Amino acid sequence: xxxxxxxxxxxxxxxxxxxxxxxxxxxxxxxxxxxxxxxxxxxxxxxxxxxxxxxxxxxxxxxxxxxxxxxxxxxxxxxxxxxxxxxxxxxxxxxxxxxxxxxxxxxxxxxxxxxxxxxxxxxxxxxxxxxxxxxxxxxxxxxxx
Length: 145
Hints:
This protein is mainly alpha-helical. It is built from four helices and two strands. The chain has helices at 3-26, 33-59, 75-120, 133-144; strands at 61-64, 67-70. It has a two-stranded antiparallel ribbon with strand order 1-2. The protein starts with a helix and ends with a helix.
């Protein structure tokens, strides 16, 4: 959204708000005094709450030179929040390390099983490097079927 559209939109909203406020103000002359006072008190409460909301939001923004950051208020809470924000990152790192360790362990078990099968087989280990080994496997498969 370019700035000129933003200004146009804002001015349309402002004009609508002014027209609405003028329309509502016209009809206040016909209302009883107690209702007018209750409306005035409610308006004052709403404006006070709005100012407090702006104050809380504005105090959370901290400027650092040319940049602005959101702050958490006092320094002690900020330190705890920063530490708490590191918990998911720490959990991710621990999870990745655990997955890596489990994967390495399962790979080592697979290799150990293969080595054990080769060493306990009827064939000597040098037979696996023989060019006729594939032929031997085919014959053995045919015999078992």
